[in-house]
Structure formats: C-alpha cells, structure tokens
Design brief:
The complex is a heterodimer of chains A (270) and B (320). Helices cover 75% and strands 0% of the residues of chain A. Chain A is an all-alpha fold. Chain B has a two-stranded antiparallel ribbon. Classes of the chains: A mainly alpha (270), B mainly alpha (320). The interface between A and B is large, with 88 and 96 residues.
Chain lengths: 270, 320
C-alpha cells in the first residue's frame, strides 16, 4: 500500500511539472480562439472556436510571407551549417595533421564570444555590402555553426575507419568516400542535428532584429515582436499570431519528438 | 599487385614509409584536411573572430554609426564614460542575479525531481519527456508574448488567480514594478530550462552504477549520506554542464524577454549587461561605449569561464 502511495506522489510531481511546462502553450492556443468578450473572463475552454482573431492577425501583418521568410532562412541556414559541419567533422576524423588542436580550439572558443561583442562590426559589414534588410543579411553570419561542427565531429568519431581503408583500396577519391561511405552511415546524426539547427534558426531573435528593415522581409519572430509593440490590447489576435509562429515548430516536434529529444539529450551528455 | 596495395594502404594510414618511398614524397604535405576545413574556419574567423578585433578597436574610438560620419580616436575615454554610466552597476548586479536565479531551476529542483522520480517505469517517463521538452523548443519571442498575457496587470490569469485566492488585494503590475520585473524574467528563464534540466539529470541518474549504492549500503550508509557522496559526485559532470548552460543561456534568452517585456525597465532594474550593451549601441547610438562594455565583459567572462572549466576538471568525476 505504501508503495502505491509513494508511486502516486512521484507521478503527481511529474504531472505538476508537465502542466507547468505545457500550460503557457495551452493558454496561448485557447486564448487565440476566444473572442473579444470571452478573452477577459479566464475560461479554461473557449465556448466555441472563433477564428476572428486569426483573420484579424492575418490582415494586420503579412504573416504568410513572414512564415515563408522564416522557412527559407531556416532551411538555408540548416543546409549551410550542416555542409560546413560535415566537412569539418570529416577532416578532423579522417586525418591527423598539423594544427588539429588549433582548429578544435577555434571551434570551441566561440562559445565564449557573446553576440554583443561581435554585433556591431558585423552590422557595419552588412551595411557596407548594402545587404541591410535582405534575407542574405540574416543568413551570411550564420553560414557556419561551431556548435554544429563540434556535434558532428563527435558523431563522426564513432565511424569505423576500416570502411574508409576499404574504400581507399578500391581507389576511391575523398569526395566519393565522404558521400558514398561516410554520409549514408551517419544519416541519423545528421538529420537530428539538422532539425536542431532548423529550430534554433527559426527561433533566432537578436541578429535578425538588427538587420531587418520592414515586415515584408522579416522572419516571423520579428514580425511577432512588432505586433506586440503595436496592438497593445488585442490579446486574442496577439495569441493567434503567436500560435501561428509556433505551428511549424510544433508540427515538427509532434512528428519527430522522440528524435529531437534524444538528440538534444545526447548532445547534453557529451 | 601486392606491393601496390601495400603502398596505397601505407599512404592512406600514414604509416612511416621505407627510405626509398620517402625519397620523392617528403616535400608533399597532405593538403586535403585543410581544404575540407577551409570554408568553415574561414567563415568563423570572418564572422566571429575578426569582428572581435573590430569591437576591440571600436572601444578606443567614438562613433555613432550614422552613415557618412567617421570614427574619432578617443583612447580610453569610452571606458571612463562606461564606468561613470549610472546603469552599469545595476546591469552587472542583475547579470549575476539572473545567473544565480536560474540555478534553482536548472540544478536544484531538477536534481530533486529526477532523484525522487528515478524509479518510475520508462514508458511513463517517455510520456513526461515529451511534455518537459516543449518549453525548450518554443521561440523566446513567443514565450515573451504568452507570459506578457499571463502576467497582464489587469486581465492576466495570474493576477486573477492571486487576487481571488487572497494573496494580493489588488492587481499587480509585474513588469512595471521595480522588484518584480526582474523576478518575472528569472521565472521565465527558469521555466524554459527546468524540464530539460530534469531530463538531463534523470538520464544521468540512470547511468550511475547501482553497485556503488549496494557497497555503501553494506557499509551502513544511510539514504542521505549515499545521496551526497555517491549521487552528487556521479552527477557532477552534468551539474557542471547545467551550470555552464545556465550562464550562457541566461544571457542569450533573457535578451529577448527583456526586449519584448520590459526594455530594461522599470528604471533600469531589469536590464543586464547584454541588454545594456545593445542599448548603448542601438539606443544611444554610442558604438564606443558599447564596445568598451564588450571588452570589459569579455575579460570578466573569459576569466570566469576559464575558472569554471578548471573547476570542472577538478570537481567533475567521470566514472571510467
């Protein structure tokens, strides 16, 4: 009997934490469906699903365009960061060479650099190139992610070198080895890392905020921020806009939840 | 044929070659790794390290980023201005408070939760995992708007509940009350981290070898003793990692929360050094002071990070 009681307590504790974790999300979604009157009465379930907030939000801002901007931005960043990370990981795993420690140092020391220490020169640079306001401005400084390189290198370290030797004896060139031998084996790690990079760049706020000049070319996070600053009292519509901004990530999460959690945790443990 | 294959193998694995083989190849350095590394390393240097030097340079100049103006050399003037700035003190203090405030949510509570729920079945744990992880993947801007609504002074759910429960008499304006704005930011940062931290500790706990506990029990150690000596020691790498993550993330995430919710107010009570730097550059248009702050910050942060890393090497106990 005592054991059942103890078990129940454990479940209750975790249940409470789950509710705390999910409640803001829940509140956002139901608030987005409440109309003007209902939103001020704290009901936990909307009386009926009103889409007026969504209609209003879509009218006020070019939300679809901004979602598209975010999508393009995140996809390109993810691809570029993966490609550069794969190349770095391959080089570090495949060869012993002079300067290996230096390269690793360059990669790991980047976490010491706060965004604010580099934002001004990068901002000036983007301006000098006349790219201010374009998607390229957001993408260029993020073409490489040191974090991705290190993760990828750690994943690659588990690759059996014997396969490379075999390929070499067959007379394969490096690119062939990379693409035909190494990559197919590491598909899972690459996919997991890719998802993490996509989510990170989707949620990115600081840098895009500096270089984005108008809503049309803004990613969804920046658009959301400007909605916050403008329509102070239309909470329903604000929640609708916020919900829309979260939908792609939540969909990805629902589909790939186990994969995402596993890979975040694997990274954490390493 | 045999000899050809052998030579190829040796070349590929860089086994020392015989004298006759070395004769021709001695001068040829293997350029391939550098080729593969070049794009990433070049880009990192261009967008991360080169700007650092740029910031260093800006700290000695005065500039307002207005197109057409030139930066003028002012030596250490910016640093003087920085130390005279009234917001610097509180920004530094707040930065520390934000980090310390994160710790209950990223280390203390998660360890407690993970330990208490250790024995639950894996299937149940997987379900909870799915929920715990959601705060981690939500965008800081989205999180800010939701909490702004939840904590709204007249119509937010929290005020409604607190007033109805009798905790407060009147509605509280969380973001414009001097002590509370900071507290709310800490709560939000903590909320984001707590689920993830609990997962990390839970998984680290399952990795601890049961034999340690059995040996301790045989020696007559009680529950508390074995917790402190065994559990905490084995968890030390994870603790150090969560410590480093708290330091890192409390800076980054809090930026979005502060920018959307309080803009550093009221009266600068919720600002931290990161936000202050941003304000210097893009609010006051004073590149020089921002850069000076960045230099100061990097020195302090660099020292702290190195201390953390060396402490981590000494304190963290790896079971292998």
């Amino acid at each position: 009997m005592k054991k059942i009681g103890l078990n129940a307590v454990k479940h209750i504790l975790l249940l409470i934490l789950s509710i705390i974790a999910v409640f803001p999300l829940y509140w956002m979604i139901i608030s987005s469906f409440k109309d003007e009157a209902e939103i001020f009465n704290y009901s936990f379930l909307p009386k009926k699903l009103q889409f007026t907030n969504y209609v209003y939000a879509l009218q006020q801002m070019p939300i679809i365009k901004m979602l598209w901007n975010s999508f393009i931005n995140s996809t390109i960043q993810m691809i570029l960061q993966i490609v550069t990370a794969v190349m770095v990981a391959y080089a570090l795993m495949r060869w012993e060479f002079k300067g290996k420690a230096l390269i690793y140092g360059i990669l790991t020391l980047t976490w010491l650099i706060p965004f604010q220490a580099i934002m001004i020169p990068n901002y000036v640079q983007i301006n000098e190139w006349g790219l201010n306001g374009s998607l390229a401005a957001i993408i260029l400084p993020n073409m490489v992610s040191a974090f991705a390189c290190i993760c990828m290198y750690q994943s690659f370290q588990s690759f059996p070198k014997a396969l490379i030797e075999a390929a070499l004896i067959d007379g394969s060139g490096e690119i062939t080895i990379l693409t035909r031998v190494v990559l197919p084996t590491m598909k899972a790690s690459i996919a997991s890392l890719g998802i993490m990079l996509f989510i990170t760049s989707w949620n990115d706020y600081m840098w895009p905020m500096l270089v984005v000049k108008n809503l049309e070319s803004a990613p969804i996070q920046i658009g959301l921020k400007s909605f916050v600053s403008s329509d102070v009292n239309l909470w329903g519509s604000l929640m609708a806009a916020t919900t829309i901004s979260c939908i792609p990530i939540l969909v990805i999460y629902l589909l790939l939840q186990r994969n995402i959690v596993d890979s975040f945790m694997k990274w954490g443990i390493k | 044929m045999d000899i050809l294959i052998q030579e190829q193998k040796k070349k590929a694995l860089r086994i020392p070659m015989t004298r006759s083989q070395l004769g021709k190849k001695k001068w040829r350095v293997n350029y391939k790794p550098y080729l593969f590394l070049f794009p990433a390393v070049f880009l990192l240097i261009w967008w991360m390290y080169k700007p650092l030097l740029g910031t260093l340079r800006y700290s000695l100049y005065e500039w307002s980023m207005v197109p057409g103006t030139q930066a003028g050399f002012v030596g250490f003037n910016n640093f003087v201005k920085l130390f005279r700035n009234k917001d610097l003190g509180i920004a530094l203090v707040n930065t520390g408070i934000y980090i310390l405030g994160m710790l209950p949510f990223s280390i203390i509570i998660p360890i407690f939760l993970a330990t208490v729920t250790q024995s639950l079945k894996d299937g149940a744990k997987k379900v909870y995992r799915a929920f715990f992880f959601i705060p981690m993947i939500m965008a800081p801007v989205a999180v800010s708007t939701i909490f702004q609504w939840l904590f709204h002074p007249s119509n937010g759910l929290l005020n409604h509940v607190l007033v109805n429960m009798g905790v407060f008499e009147n509605n509280v304006s969380f973001f414009t009350t001097q002590g509370l704005a900071r507290g709310v930011i800490i709560l939000i940062s903590g909320w984001k981290m707590i689920g993830f931290a609990t997962l990390m500790f839970s998984s680290a706990l399952s990795g601890i070898d049961k034999q340690y506990y059995e040996a301790a029990a045989l020696d007559g150690a009680g529950r508390f003793k074995s917790f402190f000596h065994i559990t905490l020691t084995m968890l030390s790498p994870t603790i150090m990692m969560m410590l480093m993550m708290s330091v890192l993330f409390s800076g980054q995430w809090s930026f979005a929360y502060i920018d959307v919710l309080t803009q550093g107010g009221p009266f600068g009570t919720s600002t931290n050094i990161y936000y202050l730097m941003y304000k210097f550059a893009f609010g006051d248009m004073n590149v020089g002071v921002c850069a000076a702050a960045a230099v100061l910050f990097m020195i302090v942060f660099g020292i702290l990070a190195l201390l953390l890393q060396s402490a981590s090497k000494r304190v963290a106990f790896y079971d292998n």
